[in-house]
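pinned: reference chain
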Amino acid sequence: MLKTFLLFLVSTIAINAQNTVSDSIVIKDTVQNLKFNYKQLIIPGILIGYGFIGLENDQLKSFNNQIREEVTEDIDNKITIDDFSQFVPAASVYALNAVGIEGKNNLKDRSIILATSYLMMTTTVFALKNITHVERPDGTSNNSFPSGHTANAFAGAEFLWQEYKDKSVWYGISGYLVATGTGLFRMYNNRHWLTDVVAGAGIGILSTKAAYWLFPYVKNTIFPSKEKKVTSMIVPFYNGQQMGAGMVVQF
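pinned: its structure tokens
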């Protein structure tokens, strides 16, 4: 009986060790597939840094006011196109797929990426608005920094770029032009300072880049394949003196 128990115990340890090694390999492979490149942080980092420095720097604050005076000098009526243009870059990805121009990822995968990007972007934007309390140029509220419309537009522009840069760079460029226009209209409508728009652009770009880096991990942990099954078995044992049970879980 004791030999049988020892054999069972060794077998259990061996199976679990094998599964542990397999899981470690999968996790390691997933981490490697994040494709993180620190160089991609440079542009969004500069944009976000400029926005934060502008919160306290008198020279940049003065520049904000100069830009506002020049942009809004001849304004008669607000143009609310920015309320819609912020969604155009991201929507373009689905529109292009609908007409047969396929992007990098399928519907499910690109939707997971976009949702991850928007979650990070929205959380960051609203958190900073509640922390900084920057007054809007038109004086209507104290949640100016950063620009949510601009962040949304640039997150979509980076999404369009990532999905279609291998097809043609002009898809991505057009998305960034629309996003830039959205930011300019936010200033033209006297809703945001330049630093708000610049920081929002950086946050949007970084959110989507991070979503692509994290996609393999998010997909394998939150949205695992249905083909992936988990089986377990519990086997009781008694060696004449001790009673217990062994459990084997296979992923």
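why pinned: The two ends are 30 Å apart (CA to CA). The chain has one domain: 27-221.
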